[in-house]
Specification:
Length: 298
């Protein structure tokens, strides 16, 4: 009886450390498995050619799955305002390697890559690389030249190359007539409000992807805000010439007969003058957050 009690006490004292040791061992095994799994995922993720060989005739289907992952990955990061989009290029790389004719991945993947964070990866160089690959695989698709001109125009500010991309795309017999006009306009004027509005409007009108459409709409709204504020600043300058001081409130411009009514942004919120006397968005406007994320459009 005494020996049974001793055994019981020994077990009682030994079991907790034993369970702790088992838990630590299992935790270590799980961590190693996760590390190996992640390593395998990274190898596959960054090896589009290997994935294409392994997928055989299912490559186009797998490419669609990877494109879906691209949209989900970008969307989740965008909603959280996270600028780290390091997996965006590998995902796009493998999707377009699996299916070189996956046009949506080239066109809208380039937008995701080229925009500055947190709205995009801030890698217009990779966007150019992606689109050039798309053009090589799909030379008949004139809209890839449009997107290439888009990246050169907005993100790289290289108006000569933007003009060349639009011009080259205009040679396609199926291209819209405005491609040649845009080539001349960009070469002559560089960046302008009208050109920017035109390009984003075309993206908005031609996409069926709700995420891309929302992104294009936000750019159109912010471009309108930028142009409105420029015009309001010009009216404030005129007010200052007349009265020797800058207006503190929009109603002063209206009262001076320079405007018929207090101006509002695309969402219906009244513009205001900031402490520096410059026109800006109302603090209540939802566009203010978007402006801070995208940066004030020039």
């Amino acid at each position: 009886m005494k020996s049974e009690k001793i055994i019981a006490w020994v077990l009682l004292l030994a079991l907790p450390p034993g369970f702790t040791g088992i838990w630590r061992l299992q935790h270590s095994i799980d961590a190693q498995r996760a590390s190996l799994s992640q390593e395998r995922d990274d190898v596959l993720l960054r090896s589009g050619k290997l994935a294409r060989v392994m997928s055989l005739e299912f490559a186009p289907l797998l490419a669609d799955i990877y494109w879906t992952r691209v949209v989900q990955y970008y969307g989740n990061k965008h909603i959280r305002g996270q600028a780290n989009l390091e997996l965006l290029w590998p995902l796009l790389d493998i999707a377009t390697t699996l299916d070189p004719n996956l046009l949506v991945a080239y066109r809208f993947g380039a937008i995701f890559l080229s925009q500055q964070g947190p709205s995009g990866a801030g890698r217009p160089d990779l966007a150019v690389q992606l689109l050039q690959r798309g053009i090589k695989e799909n030379p008949e698709e004139w809209r890839l030249y449009e997107n290439l001109g888009f990246v050169y125009y907005f993100d790289l500010k290289d108006y000569q190359k933007a003009s060349e991309a639009f011009l080259e795309g205009s040679k396609n017999p199926h291209a819209q007539f405005w491609m040649k006009l845009m080539a001349a306009k960009v070469a002559a004027e560089g960046e302008s409000f009208g050109t920017s509005m035109f390009l984003w409007k075309d993206v908005y009108d031609t996409t069926n992807d709700p995420l891309v459409k929302k992104n294009a709409l936000q750019h159109l709204q912010l471009l309108k805000v930028t142009e409105d504020c420029r015009q309001l600043d010009a009216l404030a300058d005129e007010y200052e010439k007349r009265y020797g001081k800058r207006p503190a409130r929009m109603r002063e411009i209206v009262q001076a007969g320079l405007l018929a009514a207090i101006p509002v942004d695309p969402l219906g919120f009244a513009y205001v003058f900031g402490e520096d006397g410059k026109a800006e968005l109302n603090l209540d406007s939802p566009l203010l957050e978007e402006q801070l994320m995208h940066g004030r459009l020039k």
